[in-house]
Amino acid sequence: TLVYLLTGNASEGLAIVFGLVFGIRELFLPIQLLYINLVSDGMPALALGFSPHDRQIMHQKPKQSIEVLEPFDKRYIGAISTMNAALVIGSYYFFLHISARIGLTAAFFILPISQAFMFTTIWVGFRSVFHHLRAFPAMFWLGFLGPIVGQLVIYSVPGVPELFHVRETSIGYMALFLAISTVVMIVFSLKQQYFGAKHVRSV
């Protein structure tokens, strides 16, 4: 859970910093950040909090030193958060030629969804250690589908887009945003050998 939350918060922070560097003064509004932290981050973190425990943990020798984050975790957080932030900024500029509003709309849609796909990489990596358990229990679907359904509601239900200061979006745009958001999961899968064979720990 800690790895997921640190990666998600670092993604948001880096996206805002990158936006300021490139002259985007209000990439995310306060209500959008509140939604991301409470809902889009909250449901996956809750799901990871209920992820299965390691039945063999008591049979392992105690470590000489206690580290909250192992080197693998630090590499994961740094790489994925930077990739998420770059994806958000890149998407903003990609859709900017249509309008500034659609660029900001894309940024707010893609960040939470890319974090939902990031959640799947952590869950699957975590699950690789506990291969005897069911791959996708109910808590997984809460963590994965919750943010996606939330974004679909925000962008499609009349009146809600105005509340979040985004543009009501067609099915075609939402499908395109979803496709862009999968980049994090795809790149992580391709680079898994670099990250190492071990799982991302839920601490």
Features:
single chain; 10 helices; 0% strand; mainly alpha; disordered C terminus; globular; 203 residues
Describe the structure.
The chain is mainly α and about 200 residues long. It is built from ten helices and no strands. Helix 3 (about 40-50) packs antiparallel against helix 6, helix 4 (about 70-95) runs antiparallel to helix 5 and helix 5 (about 100-125) crosses helix 9.
The radius of gyration computed from the alpha-carbon positions, rounded to a whole number of angstroms, is 18 Å
Fraction of residues in helix: 55-70%
Counting helices, strands and paired strands, the structural category is mainly alpha
Helices and strands, in order, run as: HHHHHHHHHH
Overall pLDDT confidence: 81
What's the short version?
With 203 residues, the protein is mainly α.
List the helices and strands and how they pair.
Layout: H1 2-21, H2 30-40, H3 42-49, H4 71-96, H5 100-127, H6 138-156, H7 160-163, H8 171-181, H9 183-190, H10 192-195
